[in-house]
Structure formats: structure tokens, C-alpha cells
Prior knowledge:
Chain A is an alpha/beta fold.
Amino acid sequence: MNQWLIISGKGGTGKTSVTAAFAVLAGNSVLADCDVDAADLHLLTEPENLESHEFVAGIIPTIDPTKCTGCGICEDLCQFGAIKRISLDKSIVMQVDEVACEGCDVCHYFCPEDAITVQPNHCGSWYVSRTRFGDMVHARLIPGAENSGKLVSLVRKKAEQRADENGCDLVLVDGPPGTGCPVVSSLSGIDLAILVTEPSPSGRHDLLRVLELAEHFNIPSEVIINKWDLNEDYSMKLEQELATNNVSVAGKIRFDPRMYDALLQGKTIVELSDDGAANDMKTIWKKLIFNHRKK
Amino acid sequence: TPFGLHDLSLSVSVMRDMGVPFGVIVNRMEPGHDSIRQYCKDQSIPLLMEIPFSMEVARACADGLGILDVLPEFEVPFLDMFQQVRGMIS
């Protein structure tokens, strides 16, 4: 099984566009959209939904105002400022702020009046869909909800299972931006990290951070410099810096205004053209397959 | 872009859930690409500014410069936008 993750550090460098283009070029793969906070891969893949599931993780407490005496022990103990006093029918009772709550269960444990109950926290949903490239596992975290790392793990696990079931040897994972918990979660068990960057100081800065992360987990990396001709000098310097540090650059993709048109049509650029950025992507894909795909 | 609009709608949910006042700035705007403008109108969301796509700005940002280094004529619209934001929060 080959599980390849596309990440970037900085957002907006082109991860999702590149992932979808690679899915076209691969011919047969299972897609996993691990950007659960703001999933976009479905905008390019026209998924037909096959399965929908609730994602439940952690707990959310509720304070019964009829039992609460307003003693405030829960408020004092809460490390997250998630309990506040409110006035109800002329008495003071405590109330949980569900957005601030981290589900640690301390309030529930220590309430002397047994006024707090906990329910499983419904944080989002995950889906299995069919697309023109293969099956796709994706998810949606409810805006403001917790446990994005867990949801990412779940998407990864289901995608791998699906690939096994379908007799498919390639999982392409559209990763989350940044270097936080969801990214670390998406890196687990990955065979190749494909780092899509852009020629700018923030692109470079965030690239170096994800490179460090991939190295920390001993995951081989390949860098793609996207929209490289927006700053040719910076691109060259970046390439030299990476070469000096023994970081492999799989290739460069030029800025191509047709990317926007493709996006508007819900298609990938490799489906709409053969030259320009599409050709750059094809060249890179062939190199990646040759150097990294295990039989 | 469709990605921008989609992710914007998620951010809008969060802002509304949390009761935080907000407005939208559209960056890299191109003529005819007005899905965001339409969305803001439909949702009664203040559209604070539209900054046009510009290759010069893209190149300048890649050099670590700012929008106003390349488009100094945007100084007034930016100041107007700050005033509008001030008005929204007072």
C-alpha cells in the first residue's frame, strides 16, 4: 500500500488542486480529504455519497439548573473558563459555555450536588463517496468543534480500509494546512510526504516547519514549488537552499491562469489542458511514481 | 473562488455562533468573479473591500513587500475600511 500525503504548512499554496490532479493522473486511487476543518476536495471531485456517519468524540456537560446551588466549585476548577454564572428565576446557577469547553469531565466529577450530566459530543460527520477518480473518504467538523485530530485519524483509517477492500494500492491524502495536531495526525503511517510550497517568505517559512515535522517522523519528503514563476529569483534561491540541505525537489509548477477556470468548472487542470501547469504536474507525477511507488 | 466561498461560509458560521461582528475583504478579485460579492449581499454581510488580482502585487509579496508598496492608491480605501470597522464595533 502506498499512502501519500500532500501538505504545505502555509495555506493556499495549492495542495487540494495538486491532490486532485494527481488523482486523475494516478487513474485509480482512494482519496482522503484530511482538511476536516475546511474540506475543499469535494469541490473538484463531484462525489456521489455512498455512506454518511456521525462523528462523536469526547463529552459535553450539561448543568441541571434545578439541582445546581450555584456553589461555583465547577467554575473554580474549570481550567478553560468554560463555566459561567447566570441568573435564573432570581437565583444564581452555573452554565457551561459549550464553545470554550474542552470536555475534560472535571466539573462532572467534582459537582457536590450531582447536577452535571455528560453526553457524547457530536463534533461532525464523515462520509464515503464515489468520484470519477475512485472512492473518497472525507469529513466535516462542525465549525468551532473539537477533536479534529481524531477525525483526521478516522478518515485515514477508513481510507486505508477502503483501498484494501477495493484492491487499490494508492491512497492520496489531501492534508490540512499548518503544523498542528491535525497535520501530525495526518502524517501517521504515511509513506511519502509531498510538500507543496510557493515562492514567498511565508511559504518558505512554513515549508521548513513541515519539513522538520516530516523528518521528525522519518517520513521521506518531496517538495513541489507551485506558482514558481511569480518570483523566479526567490524560487531559485529556495531550490538551492533545499538542495544544500539534501531536500529533494520533485519539480516546479508554473502559474497558470487556467487553474481558476478549472476550479470554477469543478475540474482539475490536467483534465482541461495538456500544456502549462498541467504538463508540469504530469512531469512531477511521473518522477514521483518512478522514485517512490512500491509494488 | 469556489474554495474561497466554501471556506468563507464555514467561517461565517463560526462568527455567527460566537456572536462576533465581522466583515469580508475579497483579495485577488477579478472582473466577473463576483460569487463572493453576491454571497455577502444575500447574507447581508458587510463587504469591506475588494482588492484586485495583480501580478505585481503577487511578485512584490513574494519579495516580502506589502500591497501598499505596489498599489499606493489603496491607502485611502484601506483607511476608509478601518473607519467602517471602527463604526461596526462601537
